[in-house]
Structures are given as structure tokens and as C-alpha cells.
Design goal:
The protein is 21% helix and 20% strand. It is of the alpha+beta class. Bound molecules: adenosine-5'-triphosphate and magnesium ion (MG).
Amino acid sequence: MIQLNKMSFTYTKQPFLENISFTVESGEIFGFLGPSGAGKSTIQKILIGMLPNYTGSVVINGIEIKKHDNRFYEQIGVDFEYPSLYKKLTARQNLDFFSSLYQGDCYSADELLDFSGFYFL
Ligand SMILES: Nc1ncnc2c1ncn2[C@@H]1O[C@H](COP(=O)(O)OP(=O)(O)OP(=O)(O)O)[C@@H](O)[C@H]1O
Ligand SMILES: [Mg+2]
């Protein structure tokens, strides 16, 4: 589902992320840990197409990320680092808001609340 092969990226002229390779299979839960400044958020930004000027290969669901078009965003979900809406909206409003970002069919808020086992008004 996610394949990085010798991916390198830097914000400046100094080397930063160098030759990062890993694979995440469909259905696998994968996390990466590292000290502050190690590049975790940078890798997340690369994975969602915000930083296309990497070298090497970053493929998600068969799409080389630097060549993606907006259909790519129908296939992914992102839990952003700095939530600005989550706390201001109810759980149901959060689910409705995020499903509104997708053109395709989504589960309804009721179905997701049922699935999660949480119940909110
Ligand atoms: N837009 C940018 N321009 C230049 N340098 C940047 C930019 N964004 C981040 N950096 C630098 O890149 C380095 C890695 O930052 P990044 O946010 O990816 O680290 P992180 O592993 O997510 O850290 P944290 O655990 O603190 O969230 C830091 O030194 C940061 O200052
Ligand atoms: Mg970070």
C-alpha cells in the first residue's frame, strides 16, 4: 500500500532525509518514532503529496506521489498534526465535515459511530 524506496528530501542545501526505504502492507498498522526534528512530519507531508521535490520513489496504492492528481485525495485520509476543528465540533459534526471532503460514497456518521462503539447525540 505504501512503498518508499531510497527516498531523499531536504528543505535546504544540507542533507536531511536520506535513502529512506520502507513498505507498509494493506491492513497493516505502521508507526514511526524518532526524536523531535527527525523528520516524521516531513515524511507525512511527502506521503500526502505536499512536498513533491523528493528523490527516489514514494508509491501509494500504485501512484508515484509526485505525479498524483486530485483523485489521489479520494483514496487517503489524514489525521492532521494540529487539530483546529476537532475540539470545536461534536463527534458527529467532525465525521460529517470530513466526509464532506470526499466526492465518493462514505460511511454515514451513524454507521461510523456504531462501528466505533461510541455513542454521541
Ligand atoms: N518548511 C520548512 N523549511 C525548512 N525547514 C523545515 C521546514 N519544516 C520543517 N523544517 C525542519 O525540518 C526538521 C524536521 O522537522 P519535522 O517537523 O519533520 O520533524 P518531526 O520529526 O516531525 O519533529 P517533532 O517530533 O518535533 O514533531 C526540523 O529541523 C524543522 O525545523
Ligand atoms: Mg512532527
